[in-house]
Amino acid sequence: MLPKILVVDDDRYTRTLIEQLMRKSAEVHLAESGELARELFAAIDFNLVLMDQRLPQVKGLDLLREFRLQRPKLVAILITGHADVRDAVAAVREGLFDYLTKPFEDLEALEAVIGKALELDRAYREIDSLRTRLAVESGAPDIIGQSPPMERLLGQVREVAALDTTVLLEGESGTGKDVIAKLIHAWSLRSSKPYLEVNCGGLPESLLESLLFGYEKGAFTGAAQANPGYFEKAHGGNLFLDEIADMSPKLQSSLLRVLQDRSFCRIGSTNPRKTDFRLICATNRPLAGEVKAGRFREDLYYRINVVALNLPPLRERGDDIVRLAVHFLDRYNTKFGKDCGPFTPAAVRALEACRWPGNVRELQHCIERVVALQPGGVIDASHLSPTCDFLPELDPQDKTTALPTLAYQEARTEFERDYMRRLLEAAGGNMSEAARCSGIPRQNLYVRMKRWGFVID
Length: 457
Ligand SMILES: Nc1ncnc2c1ncn2[C@@H]1O[C@H](COP(=O)(O)OP(=O)(O)OP(=O)(O)O)[C@@H](O)[C@H]1O
Fold this sequence. Notes:
Helicase, Ruva Protein, domain 3, elongated, 5-stranded parallel sheet, binds adenosine-5'-triphosphate, Rossmann fold
């Protein structure tokens, strides 16, 4: 279904221009007055409102405030003349997505801003529908993942969750292996039974051994009473062994025996006990490589590697980055009792341009820090940069490999961001100088610099 856009402008030329620009990718509705805009807004659930500031009877900004009272998460763009830039800047501070100055000189840039605004609206809606779904599917963790690689992964998870096979989750640190393991449990036929997890890399060998196998009274100094281990407690349910590559060679061979016999002995006992758990393992170091290097038993690897699922790194998840950012923004606003956001277009671009080497965990921490430090209001690229020092630069190596595969529009966007940054640097931060060097009118330049988050008002 095409997104719905409302264009409110008394100038026929602007209305027609936007309609022609967007009519293939959106359902565009036009209003030449505030009154008609109110009627349309009451009848249709718009994904985006483009509002002129100077309307005959009402100020566009006031009308948008009215609309936002009815729909707080409305994504809107204010259209202003150069003279009204101050109003527009104030509007963005209030949480409007962006403003555009008339006359529009660069239609591709206009289309790109509208595209980003629609992306943010999509993110809001998807998060809301996810919440509703999760409320129904209680027990499942909050998982954001509508990008094609995540859709594929979640499809595979659905397939294997109900089967009783051992699952190996592979992926870089912070990609969500832990949450996927919980999801497998929630979707499995064992969901009403125990779910136990242990980080094999976080415990000394002897402690991990007693945690997994349990022990009898007096088995070792300090074993004042018998204690069942996870192999026993997980009976009927799912056992998640995280960082399996870190397991010591001794425990690797003990685990292999348990998996072969489906039985084990508590420490200090020779009495074998039967157990029935489904095993889920995770690693952020590919296990095949660990086997090759002689650090992981090959026979255990084949036992574990029955169904291997690969978690894609965040940088390959496209729109999920914005969805996750919105999700974490909501979460930390609630947690800290704040009202930060929304993200400006420059912030959205910066989030998407980042390589996120620490994946979802790093993005989560980045948003948490921003919300913790900001008193409230919109989040711009400049708010993200000090907390994420790798922003907004792309890895130079990546640039050479990524550029040829970018769509023309994205490559152009990349170029403009880079150009504006260098220009501002060369002009020593002086806008008049930057305007003179580039030949771009000062006001126009200011708007572009602001869009990239290189100037803050
Ligand atoms: N798809 C997702 N949707 C929402 N939150 C996510 C998602 N993926 C990961 N997270 C969150 O990101 C954080 C890191 O995820 P998780 O611990 O599952 O990663 P991991 O791959 O197990 O990392 P490690 O290898 O370091 O153990 C967690 O707080 C988790 O809730």
